[in-house]
Amino acid sequence: MLSLMRMDLYRMRKGKAAYICLGIILATIALVYFLLFLMLTPGGQVIAGKLGMMDIAEVEEAKALFQEINLLLVFRQSCTDGGFFSLVISVYFTIFVCADFKNGFIKNIMSIHVNRWKYVGSKMLSFAILDIIYLAAAYLFTFLVNLIIGGSVPFTKLSSVLFYMAQAWVLTMAILALTMVVCMLTRSIAAGILTAVLVASGVIVTILNALLGFFHANGWLKYTLYFSLTGAPEVYHGPADLAGFAVGIVFLIVYTVFAGVVLNKKDI
User: Fold this and answer.
1) Which of 147, 164, 163, 17 is closest to 79 using CA atoms?
2) In terms of Cα–Cα distance, which of 75, 222, 230 is closest to 137?
3) What is the pLDDT of residue 138?
4) pTM: predicted TM-score of the whole model, two decimal places
5) Domain locations in the chain?
6) Sequence-ordered list of residues with C-beta below 8 angstroms from that of 229, at least 6 positions apart, any chain
7) Is the model's pLDDT at 4 over the cut of 90?
């Protein structure tokens, strides 16, 4: 499995897709910070006023609003909470996995590595590493851009950052495991991307939340992957704050095992 993982990491490093996806994530963060620059800095407020984007009253409202934010919250709002990060990495994961079936490379792999569980394990481990790199790079970029604009957004304690990032990593990996199941079942890039859009961006659970809310039967949705990620706490106060880890680990194991079973049952 380690040889397969090294091969996958080599493909990621040599290909352009991994860098494009990271660039998209960083560009989104930069856009959010540009808007913050317009609202929080005197120079930005002058530009916003000239462009007709904000008047004096709106500037004061923005100042009051942003007194309560911190760097981790900006990162969450621009990257993870809305499902954007999960969507980008899930789309890349789909293309990466389904390419093996589309170009017939999977047959060459299975002729050497008969144990199909190794294939599933190598893909998940490879993207576990990529997931960590993406999360770290995105937060570091958020940190650096904040310094560039004068540190207008208060910094967050490292312990809070690490606690949240660990949850985000586990939960996004569980989403990737679900995407893996769909890829193993359909071997279709379109189906995998559709799954990413519906699950990672929270379309399905948001609709369910709205519908079930009328009957006060939506309480269980907080244990879905999307809402576990958007509602992940930043500080540990008690066992209840570990719910995100529990949800992510359970779904990660279940979906990964299911993907392995499907791959073993279906013909290559």
Assistant:
1) 164
2) 75
3) 97
4) 0.91
5) 2-265
6) 80, 81, 83, 86, 167, 168, 171, 172, 244
7) no
